[in-house]
């Protein structure tokens, strides 16, 4: 009996581990769409069926396992609809795969559906993670125990205490396991975001630029779409640092970054790739549209007053180079944009220059 229930626990724990790795966001704290809830329900439903194959027969038509823990996991991660779906899958599996329309199968099926409904409601209405698990675990332990007693009578009194001990212990371990994995996932995502962000401006950094640029260039090539690159440089930034100090220079960088994010589309990618050097990727943006965007950025920068805490208010300018794929081959795109930026600097600064080869 114990060996079979341990097999159940191992199947469930392994499935949870794989799920956490497959999903990008937190499975506990994130709000999922209906597609994700459906996937979670189907996965835990199949996991529950696998667990039933390792069930322990305690009577000719009665066997016990930890299938109800799959319902709890679905409720904690996917909510009400995932929980109910797992209950329905268990119900169908119990009848059509394990014994047909016997009294034991029907009673177990009803118990599974009720567990799915009740645990789903608990997950929906109770916000605290521990309270959710405690309440759901008690429900999921109580209903199968009632079914076992109704089917076996006094004979179940020897089995039920062992089952309850293993079930509640396994439930507590699974709750901790999910919480621990989810916390690790959150820390990893936080670290990943910090690694790809510039500490000063909050923009994406050069490391992220290299990754995103290559990814978007491949996508544009595959879709035969346009991809424009803007390279920007703050004019005479060294003079600002030398005159007013690096703290003032940092403030200028932060405010300039705000100009860029406020002036671009939500779908655009804005990067700080060097000291006063910035880059913007414009997906599905023609060369003429990119030039319009670049001129808008140049004008917004020129017209903005940069209010600084330890220096007089400043007006700054920026030089911008523009190049667009597929007018420029992908392997030359950054080089041409950089040449255009150099041309803007050499031509007097505060300019937008397009370089097409």
TrEMBL record:
Localization in the cell: Cell membrane
Q: Where does this chain mainly localize? A: membrane
The UniProt entry's GO CC annotations, sorted and at most eight, read: plasma membrane
Membrane topology, as annotated, equals:
Multi-pass membrane protein
| Keywords, comma-separated and alphabetical | Cell membrane, Membrane, Transmembrane, Transmembrane helix
The GGDEF domain is annotated at: 225-357
Is the keyword Isomerase assigned to this protein? no
Tell me which domain of life the UniProt entry assigns to the organism this sequence originates from.
Bacteria
Entry keyword annotation includes S-adenosyl-L-methionine: no
GO terms assigned for molecular function? diguanylate cyclase activity; phosphorelay sensor kinase activity
UniProt xrefs under PANTHER family? DIGUANYLATE CYCLASE DGCM-RELATED, REGULATORY COMPONENTS OF SENSORY TRANSDUCTION SYSTEM
| Name used for this protein in its record | Diguanylate cyclase
Organism the protein comes from: Paenibacillus sedimenti
């Amino acid at each position: 009996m114990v060996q079979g229930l341990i097999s159940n626990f191992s199947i469930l724990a392994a499935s949870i581990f794989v799920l956490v790795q497959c999903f990008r966001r937190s499975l506990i704290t994130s709000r999922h769409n209906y597609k994700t809830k459906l996937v979670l329900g189907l996965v835990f439903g199949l996991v529950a069926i696998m667990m039933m194959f390792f069930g322990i027969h305690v009577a000719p038509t009665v066997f016990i396992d930890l299938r109800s823990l799959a319902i709890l996991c679905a409720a904690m991660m996917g909510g009400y609809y995932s929980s109910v779906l797992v209950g329905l899958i268990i119900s169908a599996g119990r009848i059509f795969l394990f014994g047909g329309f016997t009294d034991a199968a029907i009673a177990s099926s009803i118990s599974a559906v009720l567990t799915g409904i009740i645990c789903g409601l608990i997950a929906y209405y109770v916000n605290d993670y521990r309270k959710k698990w405690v309440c759901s675990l008690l429900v999921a332990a109580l209903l199968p125990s009632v079914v076992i007693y109704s089917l076996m009578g006094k004979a179940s009194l020897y089995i039920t205490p062992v089952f309850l001990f293993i079930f509640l212990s396994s439930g507590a371990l699974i709750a901790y396991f999910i919480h621990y994995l989810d916390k690790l996932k959150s820390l990893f995502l936080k670290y990943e975001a910090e690694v790809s962000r510039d500490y000063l401006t909050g923009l994406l950094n050069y490391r992220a630029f290299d990754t995103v640029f290559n990814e978007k260039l491949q996508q544009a090539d595959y879709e035969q779409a346009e991809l424009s690159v803007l390279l920007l440089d703050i004019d005479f930034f060294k003079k600002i640092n030398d005159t007013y100090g690096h703290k003032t220079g940092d403030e200028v960088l932060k405010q300039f970054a705000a100009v860029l994010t406020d002036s671009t589309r939500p779908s655009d990618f804005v990067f700080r790739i060097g000291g006063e050097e910035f880059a913007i990727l414009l997906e599905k943006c023609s060369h003429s549209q990119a030039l319009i965007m670049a001129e808008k950025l140049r004008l917004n920068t020129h017209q903005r007053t940069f209010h600084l805490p330890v220096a007089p208010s400043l007006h700054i300018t920026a030089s911008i180079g523009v190049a667009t794929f597929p007018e420029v081959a992908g392997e030359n795109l950054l080089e041409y944009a950089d040449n255009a930026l150099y041309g803007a600097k050499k031509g007097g600064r505060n300019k937008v220059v397009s370089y097409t080869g």
